[in-house]
Amino acid sequence: MEIRPAVLVTGAGIAGIQAALTIANEGTKVYLVEKAPYIGGHMAQLDKTFPTLDCASCIFTPKTVEVVRNKNIELFVCSEVVDVKGYVGNFTISVKKYPTYVDPSHCTGCGDCMEACVLKRGVPSEFEERMANRKAIYLAFPQAIPLKAVIDPESCLLLSRGKCKKSCVEACKAEAINFEQKEEIIEKEVGSIIIATGYDPFDPHFLPQYGYGLYDNIITGLQFERLSSPSGPTQGEILLKDGTVPKGIAFLHCIGSRDENAKQHCSRICCMASMKQAHLAKEKTGAEIYEFYIDINAFGKGYQEFYKRVREEGIFFIRGKGSEIYKRDGRLIVEAEDTLLGTPVEIPVDMVVLGTGLTARRDSEKIAQVFGISRSEDGFLMEAHPKLRPVATNVDGIFLAGCCQGPKDIPDTVAQASAAAAEAITLVARGEIEVEPTTTSIDQEICAGCKLCIEVCPYTAIQFLENKGISSVNEALCKGCGACTAVCPSKAARQKHYSQDQVLAEVEGLLT
Amino acid sequence: MSSEPKILGFICQNSAGLCVDFAGMELKNYTPNFLPLKLPCLGNLDILYLLKAYFSGADGVLVLGCSPGHCRHKMGNERARRRAEIVRSLLEIFGVGRDRLNFVSIHPSEISKMVETVNGFNERISQLGPSPFLKPDGDEGRFFWMTEFEKCDACHQCREVCPACFCKRCYPESFPNFGIDWIAHVIERCTNCGACQDACPQGIHLFEMVQLLQQKISDLNRLPLNILLPKGSERGGIINIPK
C-alpha cells in the first residue's frame, strides 16, 4: 500500500524544528503545527545554555529562520491538531487554525499597533513568564518568528467587551488588522507523524511552603532566564523587584521533582540549569550564591566539569533540599537541613530561584487521545519500548521527539528529534508498506448477491459482478476490518484468520 | 458454591486490544476471569458470536471497542454497539438479564479505565451468579421464552417461508438452537410479515418474540440504518432477490 509523501510535525520547539528541518532537507513535505504565535518553544526563552554557555538565541535563531525559508515546510502557527484519522502511511489530520485577527501576508511586524493599543497597563506576557506586560495586540518578542503581530481575544477590548476605539487599526499602515477572521479547520494528508509537544514547567503554587506568589523576588528558573536574557524585561540585569541588585541569591533544586508530594521523577536538567544560572548570577551581580541540592545530576558531556568550575567560583553548595521560605527583617530566609554537617541552616537572601521541574503538559491527555497513543504513569507520552524503541509509539507511523516523551536537555532533544525524523523519512522513502494479511474473500458458490457487503464496506473494496450476479472483493483495497463478514447472511464473505469457524472455535476454546 | 464467573471479552485490536497489552506491560492486574478475544475490528462482530458465547457457558460478555467516531474502519464500533444492544434485549426477554452483556468504549490510552471496567463487570457478574442461559430452572414466568424455544426441533419451516431468507447456504443451521439463533440472525432484515409463526409446526410464538424484540430495539432505529441495510430499502429492508 502506498504511503503519502508528507510528514506532520506538531510542536515547533527545538525538537519539532530539528525534526522538520531534517525531513524538509531530505526533500519531503512537512506540515509544522505550533500552538503559540511564534516558533521556538521554551528554548527561545532561555538566556544561555549549559555547559558551554552559548547564547541560546544565537544558536537557535538561524534554525527558526531556516524553517520559514524552507520551501518544503508549511508552517501553521496559532494552530492545533484536533483530529487524526487513518493509519500508518495514510493519516488524515485536521488542523484548527485560530484567528489572529491580523492578516500575516500584510503585517510587516513594525510594532506600531502595539504602541497604539489602548490597553494602558497591558496584561502579563506569556513569553516573558509574566515578568513583563504586553498589549492586546503584540509581537511575543522582537526576534519572534514569524514576525507577525497577533491579537489576544481575551485581553482585546473589542473582542472581549465589544467596545474599543480601534486605534490599532488606525495605526496599522499595512492595513493588516481584520477583526472578521474566523477559526478554520484545514485537512491535510500525511504518511507519518512526529509529536514534539514539549513540557510544562512545574507550577510552584502547588507547594505553598516556598512562598511563590506570596513574597516578591521568589521566581522560577524560567523567570530567571528571562531576567538574565539581554532581550528580557531588564535587558539582562539581575534586579530585584524594586530595581536594586540582590546581595544574596539562593537556588533551590528539585522543586516539584523527586518529591513525594509533587512529581516523583527527576527532571534531569534542573541541576545543570540552576548551576548555570548561579554562574550567570555570580558573574553579573557578585552576590553571595547558595545552591540547595539533594544530589547533583551532572549527566552529560562536559557537565561534571562545569559543576567543578562553578564550585570553584565561590558558590556555596549546601546538600539539603530547601524546606521552607519565609520573610524576616525584609529578607527572605531559606530553611534547610545541611545533611553533610547534620545541622539545620537558615540562610538570609534577597532573591530565591526555584529550580522547577519539567512536567507533562496539562493537555497531554488530550494529545494522547487525539493521536490514539498512550501515556506513562508520570503523564508523559509513552514510547513503544523504553530501551529499543524510544522514538516510536504504539501506533505505527507516529513518533515522539523531545520532552513530550520525558524530561530532556537540549542535546538529547535534538538527538531524539533527528532520530524521529529518520524514522519518518524511512517510512516515506520506502514508498509502500505491507498491510496485514487479514483480507476478505467471497465464496462464489455461496454468495447470493444480496449486496449487503457492498453497503457496509468502508473502503468500497467490493464490487458487484453483474454477469455472475455475485459480489467480489478487491483485495488490494481491502483493509481487513471484516465488516462484510458480519453482515453477510450466508457467510460467503470470509476473512482470513478470522473466519466464522475460527472465531466460534476460539469462543468455545476459551470458555471450556 | 459461588464459583468464579467466566467472562468473554470481544475486544477491538486497535483500542482495547492495545490496552490489554499495556496493562500487562505496566503490571496492572485485572481479573483472570476475563478472557479477551481480539477481533481486527468490532465491525467483524457477528450477532451469533455473542449468542455462541452464552451457549458455550459464558456468564457475561464484555464488548470493548473504540470510542464513537474513532473507529479506524469508520463505523465498526457503531455496528457492534447496535448488535450488542439487540443481544442485550434478547437476553432480557429470555429472562437472563441484559446486564450480562455490556458494550464499553475504550481509548488506547485509557488503560486504567479498561482495568476498572473489566473488574467492575466481573463484580457485577459475580453478584448475578452463574448464567441461567443453559439451565433455566424454576420461575416459569421469567424463563417463558426460553422454554418456548426449547420446543424448536430445527425443522427450518420458518426459514422456508421467510422473505428475508435467500441464502444458498444457511449459516445459523449449525448453531445449537435454530430458533433463537435464526431470530437473532434475521432480526435486522425482518419485514414483519409474520409468516414464520404461522409456519412453525411446534407453535412457537416466533412473531410475538420478534415484535417484543423490535419494541425494545426501536430506539436503535434512529441510528443510521443504511449502515446495515441496502439503499432504497424501506423499514426492515426487503431484499428482492429471486429465490
The largest chain-to-chain contact, stated as pair and per-chain residue counts, equals: A-B, 49 and 54 residues
CATH topology of the largest domain in chain B: Rossmann fold
Average pLDDT metric of chain B: 82
User: What's the architecture of the largest domain in chain A, going by CATH?
Assistant: 3-Layer(bba) Sandwich
Distance between the termini of chain A: 40 Å
Describe the structure.
The complex is a heterodimer of chains A (512) and B (243). Chain A has 13 helices and 28 strands. Chain A is of the alpha/beta class and 512 residues long. Chain A is globular and about 95 Å long. Chain B has two domains: 7-128, Rossmann fold (3-Layer(aba) Sandwich); 151-227, no CATH class. Chain B is built from nine helices and four strands; from the N terminus they run βαβαβαβαααααα. Chain B has a four-stranded parallel sheet, sandwiched between helices. Chain B is globular. The chains are: A alpha/beta (512), B alpha/beta (243). The interface between A and B is large, with 49 and 54 residues.
Report a brief summary of the structure.
The complex is a heterodimer of chains A (512) and B (243). Chain A starts with 5 loop residues before the first strand and ends with a helix.
List its traits:
heterodimer; A: 512 residues; alpha/beta; FAD/NAD(P)-binding domain; 4 domains; five-stranded parallel beta sheet; 13 helices; 25% helix; B: 243 residues; Rossmann fold; four-stranded parallel beta sheet; 9% strand; globular; disordered C terminus
Please outline the helices and strands:
The complex is a heterodimer of chains A (512) and B (243).
Chain A: E1 6-10, H1 14-26, E2 29-33, E3 48-49, E4 54-55, H2 56-69, E5 73-76, E6 79-87, E7 90-97, H3 112-116, E8 123-124, E9 133-134, E10 137-138, E11 150-151, H4 157-161, H5 167-171, E12 184-190, E13 192-195, E14 199-201, E15 218-220, H6 221-228, E16 248-255, H7 270-285, E17 288-293, H8 303-312, E18 316-319, E19 324-328, E20 331-338, E21 343-349, E22 351-356, E23 358-360, H9 364-371, E24 398-400, H10 410-430, E25 440-442, H11 452-456, E26 462-465, E27 470-473, H12 483-487, E28 493-495, H13 500-511
Parallel strand pairs in A: 1-2, 1-13, 2-5, 13-24, 15-22, 16-17, 16-22, 17-18
Antiparallel strand pairs in A: 3-4, 6-7, 7-12, 8-9, 10-11, 14-23, 19-20, 20-21, 25-28, 26-27
Chain B: E1 7-12, H1 16-25, E2 34-39, H2 47-55, E3 60-65, H3 76-93, E4 101-105, H4 111-128, H5 144-150, H6 157-161, H7 178-186, H8 195-199, H9 206-216
Parallel strand pairs in B: 1-2, 1-3, 3-4
Helix pairs in contact in B: 1-4, 3-9
